[in-house]
Amino acid sequence: MNLFPKNSAGESRGKNPGGTGQIVGGTVTVYAEPSVKAKAVGNFPEETAVILMHKRTTETEGIWIEIKRKEKSGWVQGWVKSESIKFNWKEDSLENLIESK
Q1: Residue 52 and residue 67: Cα distance in Å, rounded?
Q2: Which residues in the chain land under pLDDT 50?
Q3: Which of 91, 35, 93, 41 is nearest to 71 (CA)?
Q4: pLDDT given at position 91
Q5: Sheet containing 74-81: which strands, arranged edge to edge?
Q6: Is residue 54 within 8 Å of residue 47, measured between CB atoms?
Q7: Which of 5, 20, 24, 32 is most buried, taking the most CB atoms under 10 A from its CB?
Q8: What is the pLDDT, as a whole number, of residue 97?
Q9: Which residues lie closer than 8 Å to 15 by C-beta, 6 or more apart?
Q10: Nearest to 87 by CA among 44, 46, 56, 52
Q11: Phi/psi of residue 37, nearest 5 degrees
Q12: pLDDT in tens, 56-81
């Protein structure tokens, strides 16, 4: 699976609902729910390619992004703080992600 297709003129960003991005700021813990009190489901090192799914804004912990990634053992899906994501395409932004309920 190619999470980082070349961004050439006229090329689509792909079929992912929220686009693609990568982890920034060092190793990031992925949580089952958008809270640091939730169960950790994995850790991704900096520059890990991820698929962006949804966002959720919480009153106490700010904006979270739901991500997923194909690993050797299967898919890892969970939530990271928004500042842990670098968006790959100009169309990919917090404003364009669908709010999860």
Answers
A1: 5
A2: 1-15
A3: 41
A4: 62
A5: 40-44, 28-31, 74-81, 62-71, 49-58, 20-23, 85-87
A6: no
A7: 20
A8: 74
A9: none
A10: 52
A11: -90, -10
A12: 999 999 999 999 998 888 889 999 99
Residue found under tokens 């994995």 = 42
Task: Give the tokens for residue 96.
Answer: 């364009």
The residue type at 79: W
SS (H, E, C) the chain: CCCCCCCCCCCCCCCCCCCEEEECCCCEEEECCCCCCCCEEEEECCCCEEEEEEEEEECCCEEEEEEEEEECCEEEEEEEEHHHEEECCCCCCHHHCCECC
